[in-house]
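so im writing up the methods section and need the Dihydrolipoyl dehydrogenase record in one place, dumping it here so i stop losing it
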Amino acid sequence: MSQYDVAIIGSGPGGYVAAIRCAQLGMKTAIIEKYSTLGGTCLNVGCIPSKALLDSSHHFEDAVKHFDAHGIEISGEVKVDLEKMIARKQGVVDQTTKGIEFLMDKNKIEVFEGVGSFKDATHINIKKADESTDTIEAKNTIIATGSKPSTLPFIKLDKEKIITSTEALKLKEVPKHLIIIGGGVIGLELGQVYKRLGADVTVVEYMDRIIPTMDGALSKELTKVLKKQKVKFALSHKVKSVERIGDEVIVKADDKKGQEVEFKGDYCLVAVGRRPFTEGLNAEAAGVKIDERGKIEVNDHLQTSASNIYAIGDVIRGAMLAHKAEEEGTLVAEQLAGQKPHIDYNLIPGVVYTWPEVAAVGKTEEELKEAGVAYKSGQFPMRALGRSRASMDLDGFVKILADKETDEVLGVHMIGARCADLIAEAVTAMEFRASAEDISRMSHAHPTFAEAVKEAALAATEDRALHV
Ligand code: FAD
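--- predicted struct ---
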């Protein structure tokens, strides 16, 4: 029987990063993945394909709506070839997942294809597609089995017309009317893809605002911008049934007054969140406890109730984000090597890759109010930047929240062009516990969107923004 210092179950961003770091630190490492491609949700049906479609649909929208203003004429109609667009996306996915195979090989990590399940705390059975089983022995195991789309108990997903994000990434036609249940990140990103490609899009959300976990000002601005793009919103609506009749999908919901409202479309995307995935793992055999919400219980060291077994990523508590899973993979590997790594969960950024992009790190204004923290706020509109005018990306702002007494930056919230990249500056500043004045005194290249960060910091310092 093959023996390993560490075995990792699941090859998403948590699992494969953990494997690389374990191998770098000299451990004999195995990774087990039930699918034939590595990379998990993120690379196969999550981050990467959704961004590929967002990019393609953005190009289309630019060609249809914005080229003219730039003095670019197109003779003839600009059309979408959805099949080709989806094929390009798949090409990007294939390249990326092949890249992980290369990295496993380069780091001499043994890859097993099959479903991993615990025989006991140090032995894992790997059931292969041909029904045969390998058993390996591992001193330590890292569970990185991720998550699956969740649904509402009364919804029957037929995966044709009533779909999850996985099917939405490979539709064969542009919906005429796409009804999206859930105004979170995944629903809004995919909604914008199909809106750009010509679908009518209605977002039905239970809460009174979209992206409800982010700062309220970001929800407000994103709603405003998406409404300008003709996305429809039904907020404070509790969906109570989803029915398919032939090619039509009917969604019924109660509005905030309790009145029934009916939405008719040809596709319904259920984007109400994701649930941790532990099916087939046989966690009990290893003494690994799973809580009532299906998450694997871990302590601050990400150790489960079995002392040689750790868990990371979407299958445990916290934000379901690829970069959070990666940090946790690194942390466990370094702990196993006797190091003392640390993750500051407050500084894991959150991003929505709509256009304009939305990005945030640290505390929201609502959280600071609730905690009774005295803070000040500086905000700067993107439209006041030369760079924004040059590219005609005028929507959005950067808002910096800083401690009223010490000026330490407590939260940065931004919406605008390229904010997904701009947020890295805020993370760096906050990691080094910068004050708003520190950021305001750093030179930012001109003309860039990043100047909005400096200007917001100036505004937060003593209301000293220069260009408003
Ligand atoms: P996963 O990536 O879910 O990987 C788990 C792996 O474990 C899977 O490959 C699964 O097959 C395997 N597995 C499970 N059980 C077993 C078993 N018993 N044996 C063997 N293998 C098993 N996050 C971001 O940060 N940025 C984004 O832009 C972003 N966009 C997203 C867009 C969409 C449409 C979706 C659905 C998600 C998106 N996410 C994004 C979330 C991100 O994909 C997840 O947070 C991330 O993939 C979690 O990584 P993980 O390693 O915990 O698990």
